[in-house]
Write a structure and sequence with these properties.
The complex is a heterotetramer, with two copies of chain A (about 80 residues) and two copies of chain B (about 140 residues).
Chain A: E1 2-7, H1 9-15, E2 19-23, H2 30-38, E3 51-54, E4 57-59, E5 70-74
Parallel strand pairs in A: 1-5
Antiparallel strand pairs in A: 1-2, 3-4, 3-5
Chain B: E1 2-6, H1 12-19, E2 26-33, E3 37-38, E4 41-50, H2 52-70, E5 74-80, E6 82-85, E7 89-97, H3 100-117, E8 120-126, E9 131-135, E10 138-141
Parallel strand pairs in B: 1-5
Antiparallel strand pairs in B: 2-7, 3-4, 4-6, 4-8, 5-7, 8-9, 9-10
Helix pairs in contact in B: 2-3
Classes of the chains: A alpha+beta (about 80), B alpha+beta (about 140).
Chain lengths: ~80, ~140, ~140, ~80
């Protein structure tokens, strides 16, 4: 299945993408997607269990992904 | 009740007018502005970025929480993204309620929650030419 | 730091500009406005009066207390007197500090102390033609 | 001695003055001035120990007055 990954701030800068598509086996979880991202160039700077959101709502590492999901990997927030 | 990520300068007077209602006796406001120094470094400006769609949703959820917790009916929050100079307003929270306690508490709640939950980031540019991502109390130098 | 009893409409934007300083990252504001009802009576307007000279002195003392308690250096409070209509601003407190906690706490402190200590009174005029002095949580009908 | 009395809000309305001079024996205290005011027309509405200020600072019922003092009799405040 295909999942759209959104990256932001320092994560986007290090991986060189703000948005990309990744292919994962059906039934994959957030942690599987993160492992895949950490194997990309620059990906080692991602923490093993970063803050994530699926389809714009916060999610946990063991949340199951579905085809077409938007998975956001969220650096420590610093608004205000 | 309105929450938005904005790309243009924030106008506090317009937001104060937006929450005005004859039943309200108290309007509380918080404005975050870009400081000239942070942890001892001279700041030239800050580049704010956001996961716009989710930040908006999260801020709306925070406003709804103040409706339950403090019976707030008139509130607005705007967070600006883009490149801001010293003194520019990055966030404005405005809450109007019949009595003062609710508006004061709600503004504080909204500010804390937006800072802690809304997917927004800042990249500080320093006068010495360096820059650094600010996050969760730590700064990660990138150059 | 400035405190004043004023006779003209209060301009929040001007007060926000007055406390601005490049070292400040947080500006908190409280505005008191005339509500259309009080304890179930329909209010037409409020006539505020003050012991002007002492109210000014007392408000300056309150600002000085925030300097000690919260290290506040940039604050202004204005209280309007005269006849105010629904929605008019009766009091504005604006505090700017480097970090948000101090400005939020100081605004709350100043509002509470001014309400509790400054010699200022209000005579409510009701839609039904009656009027009443408001004081210490009770209303004394005078006609 | 002569003391200037300032009255405000409901107190001024009931006594019909916002400012007046009263004559008191030397050494009189705030409470003596209040007694004198309460004996004036409309004065009975004043509480026996109202909030007072001498020369623009809060004072107590047993504060001693001096010639030329400004004694303010202060109704319950209601600013904001």
């Amino acid at each position: 299945m295909t999942v759209t990954v959104r990256l932001f701030a320092s994560y986007a800068e290090r991986l060189g993408h703000s948005s990309l598509s990744i292919e994962l086996p059906a039934g994959s979880r957030v942690e599987d997607a993160v492992t895949s991202l950490r194997n990309m160039p620059g990906g080692s700077m991602l923490p093993p269990t970063p803050l994530v959101a699926i389809n714009r709502g916060y999610a946990s590492p063991d949340s199951v992904l579905s085809e077409g999901d938007e998975l956001a990997v969220i650096p420590p927030v610093a608004g205000g | 009740m309105r929450a938005a990520i904005v790309h243009e300068p924030i106008d506090p007077a317009a937001l104060i007018a937006e929450v005005a209602h004859e039943s309200n006796g108290a309007t509380s406001v918080f404005l975050g502005t870009v400081r000239s120094d942070n942890d001892g470094k001279d700041v030239a400006g800050i580049e704010y970025s956001a996961y716009d769609e989710m930040a908006g949703t999260e801020m709306v959820a925070i406003l709804e929480e103040t409706r339950s917790a403090f019976a707030v009916e008139h509130a607005v929050v705007e967070h600006r993204v883009g490149t801001l100079a010293i003194g520019d307003i990055s966030i404005a929270v405005v809450v109007a309620t019949p009595h003062r306690a609710a508006s004061l508490s709600a503004v504080q709640y909204i500010v804390e929650e937006v800072k802690g939950r809304a997917p927004i980031w800042k990249l500080e540019h320093y006068v010495d030419g360096t820059r650094g991502w600010v996050g969760a109390g730590s700064r990660e130098a990138t150059r």
